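Most newcomers find our protein records easier to grasp once they have seen one. A learned vocabulary of local backbone shapes supplies the integers on the structure line. An example says more than a description, so a record of this kind follows:
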Amino acid sequence: MLRDILFVYGQIHNTVRFPNLDLESSVHITNLVFSILRNARALHVGEAPNMIVCWGGHSINENEYLYARRVGTQLGLRELNICTGAVRVRWKRR
């Protein structure tokens, strides 16, 4: 895990590989995420793709969370590999 953290840090701060990196650009973020997944050996050449990338906003409401959880459960039941971004939820569970 430390290796991957150092790799991500290096990718973001490597001005040679990404001289004009714009973390507000979806194209730049997509390329960065692909590079990180490739380095972590999460993508395999010669195999049918089964990676689902779920990427969302920084906070979601309860209805969005419950929907995303149902979708994620169904993807998992189909034995797909799921890669998610961190999500902070604003509501409190009862």
